Automatic annotation (TrEMBL):
It catalyses: 4 Fe(II)-[cytochrome c] + O2 + 8 H(+)(in) = 4 Fe(III)-[cytochrome c] + 2 H2O + 4 H(+)(out). The keyword Nucleotide-binding does not apply. CDD domains: CcO_II_C. Component of the cytochrome c oxidase, the last enzyme in the mitochondrial electron transport chain which drives oxidative phosphorylation. The respiratory chain contains 3 multisubunit complexes succinate dehydrogenase (complex II, CII), ubiquinol-cytochrome c oxidoreductase (cytochrome b-c1 complex, complex III, CIII) and cytochrome c oxidase (complex IV, CIV), that cooperate to transfer electrons derived from NADH and succinate to molecular oxygen, creating an electrochemical gradient over the inner membrane that drives transmembrane transport and the ATP synthase. This is Cytochrome c oxidase subunit 2. Pfam families: COX2, COX2_TM. The keyword Zinc does not apply. Belongs to the cytochrome c oxidase subunit 2 family. Keywords: Copper, Electron transport, Magnesium, Membrane, Metal-binding, Mitochondrion, Mitochondrion inner membrane, Respiratory chain, Translocase, Transmembrane, Transmembrane helix, Transport. The gene is COX2. Its cofactor is Cu cation. It comes from Pygoscelis adeliae.
Length: 218
């Protein structure tokens, strides 16, 4: 759960989110190196007089052409690897269908017969003590821990987006179309998310709560 003074990501609860956090840190280090080099060169140019050797230097031109290409490769390779990992869907142990409505979610456990429920946000006036305002729902999504979960996302009216940051999952819900993704939770807990699409007046009032439990308790 994020807090007001938090600058980084939430604690990763899935392998994909762990990879995303590592790539974020990798990209920040590359950016820091570039900014430090540019700042050093600017300071050097301001402090010293330019000589004729730096005006027509083919070696310098060669370096500032090759160096950005190397930087792009260092960023592109891990990024493409994560993209392929996010698109890879293993044989799931459980398939969950999420349908976005204005403004609540409907969930269907397709592996079970007639297991469907609606998930509404709990109003502030009815919120139990200690629960999170605008994030708690009346019916949570319960999934088994350390099991491949496939989620199929669609919408019944307008565009929505099913997103849980700590799981590294964000899938658009489009009317008439089925989008799917998969994830694995690495620890038990309660993970909060929200609709990440501006779907209407009550866009911020359709939260997502995923509860991960050990398989023996599921």
């Amino acid at each position: 759960m994020a807090n007001h003074s938090q600058f980084g990501f939430q604690d990763a609860s899935s392998p994909i989110m762990e990879e995303l956090v590592e790539f974020h840190d990798h990209a920040l280090m590359v950016t820091l190196a570039i900014c430090s080099l540019v700042l050093y060169l600017l300071t050097l140019m301001l402090m010293e007089k330019l000589s004729s050797n730096t005006v027509d230097a083919q070696e310098v031109e060669l370096i500032w052409t090759i160096l950005p290409a190397i930087v792009l490769i260092l960023l592109a390779l891990p990024s493409l690897q994560i993209l392929y990992m996010m698109d890879e869907i293993d044989e799931p142990d459980l398939t969950l269908k999420a349908i976005g409505h204005q403004w609540y979610w409907t969930y269907e456990y397709t592996d079970f017969k007639d297991l469907t429920f609606d998930s509404y946000m709990i109003p502030t006036t009815d919120l139990p003590l200690g629960h999170f305002r605008l994030l708690e729902v009346d019916h949570r999504v319960v999934i088994p821990m350390e099991s491949p979960i496939r989620i199929i996302v669609t919408a019944g009216d307008v565009l929505h987006s099913w997103a849980v940051p700590t799981l590294g999952v964000k899938t658009d819900a489009i009317p008439g179309r089925l989008n799917q993704t998969s994830f694995i939770t690495t620890r038990p807990g309660i993970f909060y998310g929200q609709c990440s699409e501006i779907c209407g007046a009550n866009h911020s009032y359709m939260p997502i709560v995923v509860e991960s439990a050990p398989l023996t308790h599921f």
